[in-house]
Amino acid sequence: MKKFYQLIQKNLRPSRLAELFQKKYSTVDELPLITISREKGSGGRPTAYLLAKKLGTPWKVYHKEIVDDIAEETHLEKKLIQEVDEHKIPLIEETIADFFGKRYMTFNNYHQHLIKILSAIGQLGYSIIVGRGAQNLFPHALKVRIICEMEQRIKWMMEFEKMSRYKAIKVISESDEKRLEFEKAIFNHDLRKAHHYDLVIRTGPNLSIEDAAEAIVKLAKRRFRL
Q1: What is the 3-state secondary structure of the chain?
Q2: Quick one: which of 69, 124, 133, 213 could link to 50 by a disulfide (CB 3.0–4.6 Å)?
């Protein structure tokens, strides 16, 4: 976690969080941001890291485990918020207030920390956020959804996670249910609906992780004029 926090300090950049605030904060630049929603076993996380490699410095990946770790360690959250330009800190609170309203106050402490962390990471720019419903917070982001046929997901889980077919099916089914519940509870969205994304990619025998990353790179370069 120490290395991750040092990474944040090194690469921090001001950014407008959402188009909702472009009138209020017209002087704040939108920096590139990519969100990746994915099905378990579809290759979403390796695609994200390959994408960051292809895009090069200063692009960084923030996946579920990293975001969760920061949300659970509140002192790291405070350090992250403190590193944001003080003039941009109100954007975090306003994003939360405008998006969630009074509903935010009903969330438990963990989810409140989680949403603040996602909002703060959105300030970095050149970030690839994997999971956690991040596509719902940042209208200007390039929003990607990666899916895969069930049989292929099972095969990849068995091959790369070294588990039995029974275990793979169980893990995938539980993951699909939990992710759907999370998205509905926090953002009131169905993550399976394609219109929430700019690009939906179905990986499998005819479309590899390399292919997926390359497609996203081309779109990102055009979208953000890289």
Answers
A1: CHHHHHHHHHHCCCCCCCHHHCCCCCCCCCCCEEEEEECCCCCHHHHHHHHHHHHCCCCEEECHHHHHHHHHCHHHHHHHHHHCCCCCHHHHHHHHHHHHHHHHHHCCHHHHHHHHHHHHHCCCCCEEEECCCHHHCCCCCEEEEEEECHHHHHHHHHHHCCCCHHHHHHHHHHHHHHHHHHHHHHHCCCCCCHHHCCEEEEEECCECHHHHHHHHHHHHHHHHCC
A2: 213
The CA distance from 7 to 26, in Å, is 28
pLDDT for residue 16 is more than 80: no
Please indicate whether residue 5 or residue 118 has the higher confidence score (pLDDT).
118
Rounded to 5°, the CA angle 193-194-196 comes to 85
Where residue 61 falls among pLDDT bands split at 50, 70, 90? very high
| Average of per-residue pLDDT values in the chain | 78
Cα 12 from Cα 7, distance rounded (Å): 8
162: alpha, beta or left, given left = phi > 0 and alpha = psi -120 to 50? left
pLDDT above 50 for 87: no
Domain 32-224 belongs to what topology? Rossmann fold (3.40.50)
CB count within 10 Å of CB 71 equals 21
